[in-house]
TrEMBL record:
One of its GO terms (cellular component) is cytoplasm. The lineage of its organism: Eukaryota, Fungi, Dikarya, Basidiomycota, Agaricomycotina. InterPro entries: GSG2_C, Kinase-like_dom_sf, Prot_kinase_dom. Residues 15-46, 63-86 are annotated as: Disordered. The keyword Transferase applies. One of its GO terms (molecular function) is histone H3T3 kinase activity. GO terms for biological process: intracellular signal transduction; mitotic cell cycle. It catalyses: L-threonyl-[protein] + ATP = O-phospho-L-threonyl-[protein] + ADP + H(+); L-seryl-[protein] + ATP = O-phospho-L-seryl-[protein] + ADP + H(+). It comes from Vanrija pseudolonga. The keyword Nucleotide-binding applies. This is non-specific serine/threonine protein kinase. It comes from the Eukaryota. Its EC number is 2.7.11.1.
């Protein structure tokens, strides 16, 4: 290249030379003024040429210079481009996933929602043949050898199949079966399966407890009700002996939504306890307690036959309760079958001629049964009001005679039975003692019955051996409290019993014979029974007041710590044998 050509190149590209650094001024000297900014490079050729060369007058002359090859004519308004090399695709074209992201304003006054797009461009993957290349592993496998040959990987993949094979399941440990509360109740029943409510009274299992056997047309009558149950009698026919059936609605595991008020239901665990307690008490030597026949668990709506009996009882009863037709198809019930002990003492109508004898006999039968149960199973009833004592008439076997033993049902023509052990305390072999705390509302009632509950609480919770849970201990004094209540109830609150009229007798009166003599015996027995109950009520009242009356205690009167002691005192008096 000639010197002239080199000079032109230098002059044309002089503005692209690197900027020279300006030396900093010395300390104390004013900074030198900035050099004027050079105007941008114009499309003008340099005129610094040697005299022998003709100056360029236009760009047309520049096209024929020795340093520049002839160029193509450019269109006006278009920039010149250097010849481009063919484009090569380094990465195969593919769809780019674009995740859409929504920005939610932080408050109502912030900017409205806007959408932004996040573009993720994956890095091209470069595949190279694997020849003695170490494979990357996680940190926990760094100690293992990492060199893997292609032949090993190929052999591994040859063993991979796409067949659908079932993964072998792990053997599970055998778990003991879980029993629910209903299962526990069913284990105490005659049949371990749930029965439809409408079919239970015609089933073979229920027919086994009926005195007349299985029947397709049972005779059902309602005879009473309690807070948590309805009480019916069921017989095979009108001529057969009936049994008593208690129907107890059960609380389910889950609450049931209902728009109407439902009757009270019982916890399944409480019913299990009642069934086991009733079984135990029906085995007390000497009897005197309800005889347990069997239990069933049923489900469904109340049968129409029971509802009809319920309506007939409701028309004659002064108490109005909820009709059980409000229960649905999923409701479960416990059906407890018992022997028929007769009418409860509250509604029993004593005979006019022998009423006091019957009342006295019922009282001593209850006292004797309590005494035997105390000794045999550590029993306390704790709720022995007149509704828990059943009385049934018994045909007398002999003509009226003076009573020497009020426990003789054939002489007194009456039999008493104790029922309902929901609040009772007793001991069951192999299970220890069982008891149920009294609900708090019983301490708030007004009347003689409610006074007994409060007296029981005072006696039990202030006992010398009272533990943290004193109600589980044995306190037979509670039975004495209820016997005192029963004696007062018979003497003062029995509508069909009136104080017998005393007849004055003289020594010279002629003995009567025949019917007159029989009436005289009946009158004398009634007077004796009434006087006996008066003496009993007084003795119990004094004995129970000794604890709080030092003057009475100093007189060394008879005290009764249990029904067993009281029954023994009655034998000493010659009233029972």
């Amino acid at each position: 290249m000639s010197l002239l050509g080199l000079k032109r190149i230098i002059n044309i590209h002089h503005d692209l030379s690197p900027e020279r650094s300006t030396p900093s001024p010395a300390l104390g000297q004013p900074p030198s003024p900035l050099a004027p900014k050079r105007p941008p490079l114009q499309a003008k050729m340099s005129q610094d040429c040697v005299p022998s060369i003709k100056p360029l007058s236009s760009l047309k002359d520049f096209a024929n210079t020795p340093l520049k090859q002839p160029a193509k004519k450019l269109d006006k308004g278009k920039a010149a481009r250097a010849p481009a090399t063919p484009e090569r695709d380094l990465v195969k074209k593919h769809a780019v996933p674009r995740a859409r992201k929504v920005v939610i304003p932080r408050s109502p006054v912030s900017t409205p929602r806007r959408s932004t797009v996040e573009v993720v461009i994956p890095t091209p993957r470069h595949f190279a043949p694997l020849r003695d290349v170490g494979l990357a592993t996680s940190s926990r496998y760094r100690d293992a050898p990492t060199a893997t040959r292609v032949e090993d990987i190929t052999e591994h993949f040859e063993r991979v199949t796409i067949r659908d094979t079932k993964k072998p399941k792990r053997a599970r440990a055998v778990q003991p079966p879980k029993f629910s509360a209903i299962d526990t109740l069913l284990s105490s029943c005659l049949t371990a399966t749930l029965l439809p409510f409408g079919d239970v009274f015609t089933s073979e299992a229920f027919g086994s407890v009926l005195p007349g056997g299985r029947t397709s047309t049972p005779v059902i009558r309602k005879i009473g009700e309690a807070s948590y149950s309805e009480v019916f009698t069921v017989a095979s026919s009108t001529d057969d002996e009936a049994i008593v059936v208690k129907i107890i609605p059960l609380l389910g595991d889950k609450p049931v939504a209902s728009t109407v008020e439902l009757p009270d239901c019982s916890e399944v665990a409480d019913v299990v306890r009642e069934v086991e307690t009733t079984k135990r008490m029906s085995s007390v030597p000497g009897g005197g307690f309800g005889n347990f026949l069997g239990a069933f668990v049923v489900h469904g709506c109340y049968p129409q036959l029971l509802l009809q009996a319920w309506d007939e009882f409701d028309e004659e009863s002064e108490w109005k309760s909820l009709r059980p037709d409000v229960f649905g198809e999923s409701q479960q019930y416990a059906v407890v079958a018992l022997s028929n002990g007769g009418q409860d003492l509250e509604g029993y109508k004593f005979e006019a001629s022998r009423g006091w004898v019957q009342a006295a006999s019922a009282f001593w039968q209850v006292a004797d049964a309590l005494g035997r149960a105390e000794k045999w199973t550590g029993f306390e009833h704790r709720d022995l009001h007149e509704g828990q004592i059943l009385v049934s008439a018994v045909p007398p076997s002999t003509p009226p005679q003076p009573i020497t033993n009020y426990l003789d049902s054939s002489a007194t023509a009456v039999r008493a039975t104790i029922i309902d052990f929901g609040l009772s305390r007793l001991e069951i072999p192999g299970h220890g003692s069982t008891s149920t705390p009294l609900p708090d509302e019983v301490y708030e009632g007004v009347g003689n019955q409610w006074d007994v509950y409060r007296a029981m609480r005072d006696r039990i919770e202030s006992a010398d051996d009272a533990a943290s849970d004193a109600w589980t201990a044995f306190h037979p004094i509670t039975n004495v409290l209820w016997l005192h209540y029963l004696a007062r109830r018979l003497l003062r609150s029995t509508p069909t019993l009136r104080k017998p009229r005393e007849v004055k007798r003289s020594a010279s009166s002629v003995p009567k014979k025949g019917a007159l003599a029989e009436k005289e015996v009946i009158r004398a027995r009634s007077e004796a029974a009434w006087h006996m109950l008066v003496a009993v009520e007084a003795a119990l009242g004094v004995a129970l007041s000794v604890r709080d009356n030092a003057r009475v205690a100093a007189r060394k009167l008879q005290q009764f710590a249990s029904a067993e002691e009281f029954a023994e005192w009655g034998r000493q008096q010659g009233w029972i044998a």
